[in-house]
Amino acid sequence: MGPGSAGRRAGPAARGSGTGGSGSGTGGILLLLLGAAAATPSTGPSPCPQDHLLCGDGSCLSRHFACDGDRDCPDGRDELGCAPPPSAPPSPPPPCPPSSFRCRDGSCIPRLWSCDGDRDCRDGEDEGEGLCGPPRPPRACPPLQFSCGSGECLTRRWRCDGTPDCRDSSDEEGCAPPPPCPPGQLLCRDRRCIPAARACDGTPDCRDGDDEEACPDAPSCPPPHRFRCRSGECIAIAQVCDGRRHCRDWSDEPLKECGVNECLAGAGGCSHGCRDLRLGHECLCPPGLGLEPDNRTCHGPPGTLVVGTRHQLLALGGAEPRVLRGALKHAAALDVAIEGGALFWGDPSEGRIYTAPLAAGPAVPLAVLSGPGAPAGLALDWTHGLLYWTEPGSGRVAVADRSGWRQRTLHRDPRTRPWAVVVDPRNGFLYWSDWGSRPQITRGGQDGAPPEALVTEDVERPQGLALDQSSQRLFWADGRLQAVSSVGLDGRGRRTHLRDPRHLGQPLGLAVFQDWLVWTDPPRGSLVAARLRGGSSPSPPRLLAQELFSPEAVVVLHPDRQPPGPDRCRGSLCSFLCLPSPARGPGSAPFTCACPDGEHLAGDGRTCVTEPPGTPEPLSRNFSAEGNASAGDPGQPGGPRGAGPLMTSLGVLLPLALALGLGVAGRGLWRGWRRRSTNSISFSNAAFRKGPQHLRGAGPADTQWPLTAEDDEP
User: Fold this and answer.
1) pLDDT confidence tier of residue 188, bands split at 50, 70 and 90
2) Domain 141-176 is in which class?
């Protein structure tokens, strides 16, 4: 009943209430009839004023209270036949910033995220054909490779092998069901068959370890929502310390532990955070750190971890993750200049490389334009101020200065797919992973010297790559073998440190520092770490962070990762680029001058010139057919190294031509002397005659020829 309804109705009950007692029976019948008449709508004039409504009980109600949503009449007549209240127009959503795109549900996303191949709006209108145009046809892949729906090219033998390798898992779509295994064997998810006796033996034999899942003796009481009694039962955690026995041995109701908050006394012995439980407590660690085996101490990779997710650059290692850069389109490749405090990342969707300060500051695109899907890998030479990157689509490895204005191609081979890249300024070498037609780990000089295969055996899909400066070893993660291995910088002493199908499903980015391995797993959205512990087997992998959006790259932000070293290009006087050279022996040149694509070095070995029109570009000894290079020490024996094949050819051909000319001139002088110093004698009956001149057409070494009858006449 609405407010004030008690005093806004006037009923006729008082009228006729003075009936005498003598007519009580008749009065009762009369009251019943009057009640029935009041309950029936009257067709006569209403006893209520015009601005009032007659309720079913005969009371009058002001029409002001009709259809107000409250039942003021006892029978609800004031709310009958009311039109539905007009719905208030929805308030317009707040406007999006100028650099954002509005989805149909009102949410705002950065405009960079539209038409990038990812559905960021709930209904996917940021990738609609009306906005982005018709979808581009997938890129043609080389022979014997499979084209993913998400654009990658994979080895055809990975198609329908039970393990998704494409980002969209299109390599496992439309596959025929695997053939049944012979009797006594078990079918793995990767379509291989193993002996059934090996299932549930504690050792995973299937690639994904699915032969050790759903085993009858496997623990089925996972914390933190379940509690295992010491007598073997598994109960809900809510049943612990509730005052009732649920375990046969009463282990769920220990008198000295229930109701006690262990975190109040010395933080429960935890090094960082503590959380009280119904029974006992647990220690907590900030993102980027993990618990040691004592379950009390937090420890993790030293230094801050910088992780590149799809749209953000995050710093992990403090109490909370810190966003260094946000609203990015696609941050795939990543490196950091620790001394100068600068970030460098590559965006394969735009084919650009960006830089920005670690502190607050605008991001600046470098003058580097790569092909589609590049750059995939990025490495900074912190000593010489050089950036190296890879382009898998064209098989290209390139270099530029930190501004990006001076760049050149080091290697190009369409048969290769260079991916991750690392640089070793101390020794002048460059390393990159290649999962083209012949997967391998490749080593080349920073100056573009011809590359060589460092690892070719037992490698299928090398992705993440990292160089440990302290041990001088090269580490890589193989996404197909689900392993992390390392090798010495000379290619010897190979080791396999970890094989784990669960945590190494698709490792992409890899970082190594001191005795820690850290890698990203984009499909699972996690950052995982394992401690090498010297030469022994590594500790079990632990999750440092999870629920990240497609983490791809990771680097350690620690000064020891980029130790100082000598600058080999100091005082080089190169007109374009100075590239450090590997130490090839005593007296070898410390650097090489390089020119942009399409130019070569002049005779001084330092200045770049352009070939005249129509002249083919010379091939370089140290580079591919992109340009030329010269040694940085022209005073070395042999002249300027790498001055060009043209100079080498002239140096060989000119002496040969000079020797040939001298030979011809000497022969002419000798023949003239013979003509002047020889006398002729004639015999009348002789068959042969020795003359001072050769007959025309005679051989060059024979001076006697038979005479004809005409020649013998006087």
Assistant:
1) confident
2) few secondary structures
